[in-house]
Write a structure and sequence with these properties.
Chain B: Its main location: membrane. The structure holds 2 protein chains of 2 kinds. Chain A contains 19 helices and 24 strands. Chain A is of the alpha/beta class. In chain A, helix 4 crosses helix 5 and helix 14 crosses helix 15. Classes of the chains: A alpha/beta, B mainly alpha.
Chain lengths: 538, 326
């Protein structure tokens, strides 16, 4: 901001992984008392950049200056010591330890050489309160908390370390709208306290609200730096993807609602205190969205359909006939033909150390084998089809799937299920932490599958997606369907109002809800073209 | 407000092991011809503490998501060494005890160094080092023999004030001096964190290596304390291969019985101690019910399976099947 002395500078930083160039002579400078947004597609080098800053990876060349003198970090601990604290996209919490244990983990308070539990508790409570998450009990085990709460713990943990430079890498992607609002308040306060904040997000509206300065990365280089608000969303997206930005959501087919016979139906589904009398139906060719704040039972509803929950009451009907779905194996079977794209691709979707090929064929192994022996040729054919269909960008089929970028990993998860040609597709927030280009491809794919007759139930935490993709949206609140929005009724205002369970007309502007999204959904159409850059090496 | 519930959840495994032990021990003493007398308790305690020490040792390593298959062999090696050194005048005996414990610590430290700095799998590393430790034990005592300072031995295996088994007091002392400080230190927490999620621990700047190293080294020390007590009970040293292996495997059973997760990051040595005591009581139960010794291993196995299954009952209450895999 206004030419202040940079607190931290990176000059000519390069990093290669094998043959892949992750960073190429990248430059960045960070000033105190400002929020600096880093933009770019997945794989543009943002993650590597902050890993270098945070001491997780060592750069091949280049130098870093802190307070005008050259520094290098051998480990995350060394970077922390220098006041650089990073909230990573992959959560860095230890699941079996308590919230308080985790918050003080890198430097616990000590008394007589042992950890002082009272002081620890106090620090944890302070940090949680500072992060606006005083509702989390410091003695709860992290593994028992839902993802959004864990993210808040992660933020509290970073604050407890008293950073000078705080890096947030997709830190809000798992948060509810209310938490995002709280965190924004915290971040703005930190800025006024003189911290330097680096903010990485795919949500343009968040960047518009927070950032003072923006830097766009593409292919490992910083391609542009500008003061926030001096470029339109369109220009920014074009900088990010290096090509003209075409409108992101595919057109919705015009159809009279509920003409198609329902493929998937629920009648009065209830489960513990999380699902409350839910009835819904999804027809062939329909994309039905699930909206609402995070954690209102959307995830449980999808799991209920997929045979994961026990003690479910109510009925599930497939093609109008009641069925008992006792396990995911049953759900994916030929009679039902269901697929679930899970929320957390790293644990529920993929076997990270195994190869792309193995991951792709897991769900379809029964179809690809005869007498227990896998038909390699058939497997190869199907895999080739999928890699081409989804334009999966990988160095080869035999690399570990963990080496792919987030967007491509998600494509593998989806491809793995498409190999079974499912009739019913359940998606649990599939675009979380994924770059704009890949998101766009997924939207197109979803519509294409629906047009081919699939029934799609789609949960998203991003209102723009629900508006852009869905024929109907069911808004859940406290485990019950609060409101059904059809076609043109699906607006940001209606979604937010029903998500907060308040009357749409009296909806306050701003406040608790996510700020109205700019751009993305509303950018003028310029004719969608299959992107040559992404399709090329498939 | 709800603090106690979190505490209860954390101590579930330990409390369950405690419960299992109390039930078994009550059945045992009420069917014992002599009943619940100081003598019966002393004998049970002396048998139990040996496995309890080795199980504590195992706990430390299992918490880091590793496993130590050499604990039984360190136990034998230190037994053989003690049968040479822990004898003579008070000073000589004291020197012997220090040397024996130091040897255990060194054995554990070697395991730790290989696993952590050599980046080898704990299971393979400790099979190999275990064989080496047994080899040294065999060289020290090709045949059973040696002796020990009998005054010290009798004092530590007898009774305090005529009622309290001294070995039990020693176990408690070791628990307070080794386990409690470790579990509450930064290194102890690092060991837990490394066992639960090594990546997250690393990213948080936790001293993983030192924590794991401390766990392995202290495991060696605890196994050596076990070896020392074995010498006090038997007055001799013996490199008995089968016995070493049995202690290693029983220590794993005891640890699981005590609610320590083999996946790491969860459990306490206190649970493992009750696990060990319960495991020992299984053998005693079969004795008081006059089972043919031929049937003993079979029944021991069956009872162990039942006891371990108790810890799995919670799975029936799980209503979201994904929680099975957590």
């Amino acid at each position: 901001m206004d030419g202040a002395v940079p607190l931290f500078r990176m000059e000519g930083i390069s990093k290669r992984y094998g043959g892949v160039r992750a960073l190429e002579k990248a430059e960045l400078s960070v000033t105190p008392g400002s929020i600096h947004a880093i933009l770019g597609e997945n794989g543009a080098g943002k993650s590597t950049l902050i890993k270098v800053m945070a001491g997780v990876v060592a750069p091949d060349e280049g130098r870093m200056m802190l307070d005008g003198s050259e520094v290098s970090f051998a480990s995350p601990a060394a970077a922390n010591q220098a006041g650089i604290v990073c909230i990573f996209q992959e959560l860095s919490l230890v699941p079996e330890l308590s919230v308080a244990d985790n918050i003080v983990i890198s430097d616990p308070p000590k008394r007589f050489g042992m950890i002082d539990r009272k002081a620890q508790r106090r620090i944890a409570e302070e940090a949680l309160a500072r992060a606006g998450a005083a509702d989390i009990h410091p003695l709860a085990l992290v593994k028992d908390l839902p993802l959004s709460r864990r993210q808040m713990v992660e933020i509290a943990k970073a604050l407890a370390r008293k950073p000078r430079i705080l890096i947030l890498d997709e830190a809000t992607s798992a948060l509810t709208a209310a938490d995002v609002a709280k965190i924004f308040g915290v971040l703005k306060r930190l800025r006024s306290e003189g911290l330097a904040l680096l903010y990485i997000s795919h949500r343009m509206n968040e960047i518009a609200e927070l950032a003072d300065q923006c830097t766009v990365f593409r292919n490992g280089r910083n391609v542009a730096s500008y003061a926030a608000g001096t470029k339109s969303d369109n220009e920014v997206v074009e900088l990010m993807i290096g090509r003209e930005y075409s409108h992101i959501f595919p057109p919705r087919p015009m159809r009279a609602p509920a003409t198609a016979a329902p493929v998937l139906e629920a009648r009065k589904l209830s489960w513990t205190d999380r699902l409350d009398n839910i009835s819904l139906s999804v027809g062939a060719g329909e994309v039905v969205g699930l909206g609402g704040l995070d954690g209102q039972g959307q995830r449980e509803l999808l799991l209920a359909f997929f045979g994961v929950l026990r003690g479910l009451s109510g009925q599930i009907l497939i093609d109008g006939k009641p069925v008992a779905i006792a396990s995911p194996a049953k759900a994916r079977g030929d009679r039902i033909g269901m697929a679930l794209i899970p929320e957390d691709r790293k644990t529920e979707g993929l076997m990270l150390p195994m190869t792309v090929r193995e991951n792709l064929s897991f769900a379809a192994l029964d179809r690809l084998s005869r007498g227990g022996i896998i038909d390699r040729a058939a497997e190869q054919r199907l895999i080739d089809d999928m890699v081409a269909l989804l334009a999966i960008k990988t160095a080869g089929l035999d690399v570990p799937v963990g080496a792919l970028s987030g967007g491509n990993q998600q494509k593998v998860v989806i491809a793995k299920w498409l190999m079974r040609q499912p009739r019913i597709i359940l998606l649990n927030d599939p675009t979380r932490g994924i770059d704009v280009g890949t998101k766009q491809e997924l939207y197109q794919l979803m519509r294409k599958l629906a047009d081919q007759g699939a029934a799609i139930l789609f949960y998203s935490t991003d209102y723009d997606e629900l508006i852009g993709c869905c024929d109907r949206v069911l808004v859940l609140y406290d485990g019950a369907v609060k409101r059904e929005l059809v076609g043109a009724e699906i607006t940001e205002r209606a979604l937010i109002a029903s998500a907060l369970n308040i009357n749409g007309e009296e909806m306050p502007v701003g406040g608790m809800a996510k700020t109205p999204a700019r751009g993305m959904a509303k950018t003028p159409a310029r004719g969608m073209a299959k992107t040559p850059a992404r399709g090329a090496d498939a | 407000m709800k603090d106690w519930r979190y505490w209860l959840a954390e101590q579930r495994g330990t409390l369950l092991a405690f419960g299992i032990f109390i039930v078994m021990f009550t059945i045992y003493t009420s069917n014992h011809p002599a009943g619940f007398t100081a003598n019966v308790v002393q004998t049970a305690s002396n048998k139990g503490v040996l496995l309890a020490f080795v199980a504590m040792a195992q706990t430390l390593v299992v918490i880091t998501a590793g496993i130590d298959l050499s604990v039984g062999m360190i136990f034998l090696l230190t037994n053989c060494l003690a049968s040479w050194l822990v004898i003579g005048t008070g000073i000589e005996t004291a020197f012997g005890v220090v040397a024996v414990l130091g040897t255990g610590l060194l054995c554990g430290a070697i395991n730790g160094a290989i696993v952590i700095y050599g980046r080898l799998q704990p299971i393979v590393t400790t099979i190999a080092t275990g064989a080496v430790y047994f080899g040294i034990a065999l060289l020290l005592r090709p045949f059973p023999g040696g002796s020990v300072n009998e005054d010290l031995a009798d004092a530590l295996t007898g009774r305090l004030f005529g009622v309290v088994p001294a070995s039990l007091v020693a176990l408690l002392a070791v628990l307070l001096v080794v386990w409690v400080p470790f579990s509450r230190s930064v290194l102890g927490r690092a060991a837990y964190a490394a066992g639960s999620s090594e990546t997250a621990a690393y990213m948080s700047g936790v001293p993983i290596r030192r924590g794991k190293f401390a766990a392995y080294a202290l495991a060696g020390l605890l196994a050596a304390i076990g070896g020392l007590f074995l010498t006090f009970f038997t007055y001799t040293g013996e490199a008995a291969y089968a016995s070493g292996n049995a202690y290693t495997l029983f220590s794993i059973a005891a640890v699981v019985l005590g609610g320590v997760s083999l996946f790491g990051g969860k459990g306490s040595a206190i649970g493992a101690i009750f696990g060990a005591l319960a495991f020992r009581t299984i053998g005693d139960l079969l004795f008081v019910f006059d089972f043919d010794p031929l049937w003993q291993p079979l029944f021991q196995g069956v009872i162990l399976l039942i006891a371990v299954s108790l810890g799995a009952f919670a799975l029936f209450r799980v209503r979201n099947r994904l929680e099975w895999f957590l």
